[in-house]
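Chain X:
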Amino acid sequence: MIPKIAYARPHSLKEAVKELSAPGTIAHAGGTDLLGCLRDGIVTPEKVISLSGLSDLKGIARTGDGGLRIGALTTLAEVADDHVINEQFTALAEAAASAASPQLRNQGTLGGNLCQRPRCWYFRGEFHCRRKGGEICFAMNGRNEFHCIFGGQNCFIVHPSDSAPALVALEARVRIANSRGTRTIPLDSFFVDPAKDVTRENILRPGEIITEILLPAPVTQMRSSYRKARARGAWDFALSGVAIGLRFNGKRVDQARIVLSGVAPIPWRAVETEQALAGKILDGETVARAAESAVRSAEPLSDNAYKIHLTQGIVHESLMALRPE
């Protein structure tokens, strides 16, 4: 049962951040995650602030430097269907298309997808876990087959977003608005590691909103992809996945960004794998070594060691598919 909640629908960004600065308020974008959080008692706001009236936060457009600006309220379906994103930022199109169901993609927004709350059944259930201010992460010694194999020190959630790892691989930036103005940061600085603060998933403070996501201008010989494995063939979160962005110089990898999904509390940069690919031709030996390096530091729990082999396989197959002709 959802308790009675006050509701406001501001029509300007200035009004929205002012409303959200008040205690007991929460933002509503597409609402696909918010409704579940309300039902589960994860959030108990006094007032919901709808962002749907902020037309400036919608749409996809070229920037002056040849990059791309995606409004935070742009739906996942719009991102997945955009021809420019499909051609030049393929990993993002594939990630958006793989999220949830068609109905949810038509409602859920890109900004909301980056900010969604963890799906851990202890966090969503009636357990006073560390993320809710308790002293125990129940996944450590409980059911943990869907939990993380990287970065699980204080909390073993996995970040639920598919678009986040793709955007990090594509070197995206995010613009954040508050009552004092705006700031723009690299997206990989947006997420909060539980080792630093176990109660938060991102750096947003009260009264702050993501307004847009900025992608740099595409470069020649850039190839990217996103692939995930899931328990069901569709409409499910990643058990493991990988977003890859590769810049080539001829047939050699000039720069690599490898970001894992479904295996860590934040989109997980596989830095060792990136280093293993730099300057190399993607032959079978190089790809096999890179895939092995992606899981070398994994620390599985009692029931999720399968994610090591799954992740290695996904990285291997994704890299092979990106080899130049």
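Chain Y:
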Amino acid sequence: MLDKSLRKNKKGEVMVEALVAISVAVVGLLGVFEFVSRSFSLNRVIADQYVGTYLAAEGIELVKNLVDSHPWNSPDAIPDADPTDYEIDFQELSLQPIISASQPLLFDDQYYNYSNGQPTKFHRIISIDPTLNNGDEIKVVSRVSWSTRGGGQSKSEVESHFFNLQQ
């Protein structure tokens, strides 16, 4: 009689051990899934920072091309009037005063611009101060901002100074 009751208890122990083992495995898998999910989320954040930084650097480069292609401090290249905030893309040959601060850059499957493509989350503003060092220095700040997941804002800012070396 005692023998039969011990066998029944052992069968119950196997079931309890199996449930504990399954619970441990499920908790471990949930941790792995959380890690993968967070990894994908951070990948998006890093990709946006990468694009924002390079769009800001592109803004500086486009202004540099304008400065290099015109006589120093020419109104054709750098307007000397208000407003001091502009937008520019690789298709434009001059700085355009900002019409709307909420105008996003568009993406046309290859390039970011203001004329055609799908709206993006990125907004670029180029600020110019041509009055430094008696007009022999131009300060250019390129700011790119974008909305992040959850409604936050992120930004990238690049500053450069151009000097009149033809004195």
